[in-house]
Design a protein that fits this description.
Blueprint (H helix, E strand, L loop, with lengths): L5 H16 L6 H8 L3 H7 L4 H25 L3 H18 L7 H6 L6 H24 L4 H25 L3 H16 L5 H10 L1
Length: about 200
């Protein structure tokens, strides 16, 4: 059950439905039913209607993952943070029967007629990319390499989520976890043995 006031319930429901169906396949009737709110609540809290609600839901979902990453990186190495993130997605896909994907990816696919929603998705991806970059640099990865690996990490995780949903198997995510951890370890200037390990794995 979605809890909280009408605004919170609408945002939470929008995130859930974006994960399950995407932006355009989510209708107002479904949002109202899932959130348990009256139609007037949407325009009271989101004067721009569904588009504004989806934009704000995208920003809220992005910030949720920002906080997740902060917690993961605070507890260990960049490798363990990436492992924790992917493990969380593996658990989420299994618990929902592969029904829920990434809301930010769904927002990114909203199309050119929803520029504000796409912009919110781009902002979320950029913030995540920066989080990975800062974590990699802090652990000893040269800045140029860290920028590339951060971009690869975001793209690989997002792609593996889609692949896992399509196959109804977490194998793509597990493979992504293995190779990203090796790549991150190999990128440190004080880890030449890790480079050799990645070379052998490739």
């Amino acid at each position: 059950m979605v809890v909280g006031g009408p605004r919170n319930r609408l945002i939470t429901s929008a995130i859930e439905l974006m994960c399950e169906r995407g932006v355009h396949a989510t209708g107002l009737a479904e949002l109202l039913e899932r959130s348990g709110t009256a139609r007037r609540s949407i325009y009271q809290h989101f004067p721009g209607g569904k588009s504004e609600l989806m934009e704000q839901a995208t920003r809220a979902a992005g910030q949720h993952i920002v906080r997740q990453l902060e917690g993961f990186f605070a507890r260990g190495t960049p490798e363990s943070g990436v492992e924790a993130l992917i493990d969380d997605w593996i658990a989420s896909l299994r618990s929902t029967g592969y029904a829920r994907g990434c809301p930010i990816l769904a927002a990114a696919q909203a199309g050119p007629d929803e520029p504000a929603i796409q912009a919110a998705a781009a902002e979320a991806f950029t913030v995540w990319n920066n989080q990975f970059f800062e974590a990699f640099v802090a652990s000893g990865t040269p800045r140029e390499a860290a920028a590339v690996i951060a971009d690869i990490t975001v793209s690989t995780v997002e792609g593996a989520i889609v692949h896992s949903r399509a196959l109804r198997s977490t194998t793509p995510l597990a493979n992504a976890r293995t190779m990203l951890v090796r790549l991150i370890a190999a990128s440190r200037i004080d880890q030449p043995e890790a480079v050799a390990e990645v070379d052998r794995a490739m």
